Structure formats: C-alpha cells, structure tokens
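Minutes, project check-in
Item: structure for the 353-residue chain
Input as provided by the requester:
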Amino acid sequence: MTRERIACLGFWILATATAAAAQQSSNTTESGPASRVTERRYAAGNIESWRATHARDASPAGDVTVDAIDGPNVDGRMARRQEIVTATTRTAPNATETRRDVFGFGGDGRRTLLETTQSQQQTLANGDTGAVHDTVTPDLNGHTRLTSRQVDQARANGDGRESDTTFFSQNYNDRLRESARSQYTERRSGGSVRYESMQQIRDVNDRWQTSETRAGEVQDDGVSERLEEETIQRPDMDGNLALAEMNIIRSSRTKDQEQSVVETYAPITDVQGTDGRPPLSERIHRTTTTSADGTRFTVEELEARSPVSPNDPMRVIQRTETTVRPTGTEQWVTERRVFERDVNGRMQLVRIE
C-alpha cells in the first residue's frame, strides 16, 4: 500500500505486531518438509552486508521457527543481532499454544531475552475462533511483567464472517486497560465479497475515537482475475471522518506469471480528480515470473507525482528487482536490487538487499 497509508496505520501496527506475529505462526497449517531454511543478504553502498535467516522444524506435535538477523560488529565480523524463536504446540485437535521469544545480543555477544508472547487459540465446533495473546517483558531485576494483551474473536454470520480485536496496554498505574479495538465484517455474494472495518483508539480524555474506516469489494473469478476496490476514511483537522484515499487493485495470474496493478487515489492540492474519485496519486506495477527451476523474479515499479509539480504526468521513481532462487532442498536465497532516480532524473542502483 501507499507510504501515507502505512504511516497512518503505524500506531495500530506497532501496538499489535508482536501478538499478531504469534497468531500468524500458530494459525499456519503449513505442510511439507520438516526443515526449511531461507536466507537473505543485504548490502547498501559501502556498508558490509548483513544476513537474515529463517529456519523451520516441523513435527506432528508442532512447529519451531527461528528467525535471526546477523550483522557486522565493532570488529567488522558477522555476529548475531536479533533472534526470534516461535514454538507452536497442538494441545488438542482444535487448539494450539504458541510461545514467541525475542532475544537481543549485546556487544559481547550475550543473548538476552527482550520479550515473550504467549498465545492460546481455539476453534469451536461451529467454526468460531478465539485467541488471547499476552506479552511479558523482563525488568532490570529479571522479573517479568504483563505489558499488553490482545484478544481476537471471529465468527460466522450468514454468508460472511465477523471478527473483533481488542488491545489492552499498561496505563500509568501499570494496569492493563483497553486502549484500541478493531471490528471487521464481510459478506459473500456470488463471486464477490464486500467488507467493512473500523479501528478505534482511546484518546487522552479517555474517550473512544474512530481512527479509520475501510469499505471495499473484492471480485474474484477463482481462476485468474481479481479486482478490489477500497475506500478509506480518516479524521480531518476538525476530527470528522473524511475521504483519505481510494485503492483499486487489479491482479491476474497464469501458470508462469502473476501481475498486479495498485492504484491509489488521494486528495492533492490544486489537482482535480475524475469520475467522482480524487486524483490518482500513486501506481504500483508488479510482475512475477517463475522459471522451470523454481526461481521467482519480481519487478516492481512505483509511479508517483512530482512533489513540486503535482499536475505533471506521473513517472516511475523507483524500481525494485527481486530474485528468489532455490539453492538446495527446501533452501532459498533472496536478492533484491533497488533503483531510484538521481538529481538528473536517471535511474541509479541505490542499494542491494
């Protein structure tokens, strides 16, 4: 999505990132090999490359994944910077428990626990699901304390589903209180899905304020074509909900290629829109091609308006080329090259990841 959209959602993402990551891991029903390793290497300019690895070990009782980041230390040697260990255990046919530990590493290489998230998920006989994610952090004395809690509930409703998410965080008395909430509903009709969502936060006066609403429709033929249209509202300067942006996402796929176009329409000073929409502010083209050996090559081009001449035609300001190639049994290496325009308007390689 757009940079503006990401920035406005920053609070909610930060608030729920840890618990959501634990939930995602525990809800995964991934089948396949018992071990999987993915490695990514990054480099920018003269900075020595750093490495991100993902390893998965699966068994009938559950899964264990280890995500690690290595980078150069003060001596210029590669050393462990961060490690996230996620263990998921199936406690019953319809229930799982997840523990997610985040570790940091000091200059001496000592491994230190930064936070732990414990999650419990359950699916009822009628298909309703529920989950509770508790995050604890250690203090200077090594004692842990509960710092946040996220409660998720989802249920079927006719031809659709509804879900509620409630987030609790510590207040000034070190007690948990409800600080954010989210509601989502969707309805299916034929080959389309209509959805609505609302996010609310508690302000400094202890009142609930709507921070964002979304409404959209997805049309999917189930074979090769998909179209999504979404409208987003956020509070204006007076606190009233107003149109913030509209997104239209078109995607198609064949056996060897996937293509998508994401168009973002948003109010721009002195630029007129058409067809009842704000003016087009950003467009992303993404094409992924898969070769016979399993290598995936993705090209993404970002078009945007000039910040100094917004009425000028849009042009490509960034191009990203990503290659994911297999290097062995269930092992992959990801390489990413990012190009941006320089002061002379020419596309230049700015970093390699």
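Outcome recorded: The first helix runs from residue 3 to 8.
No further action items on this chain.
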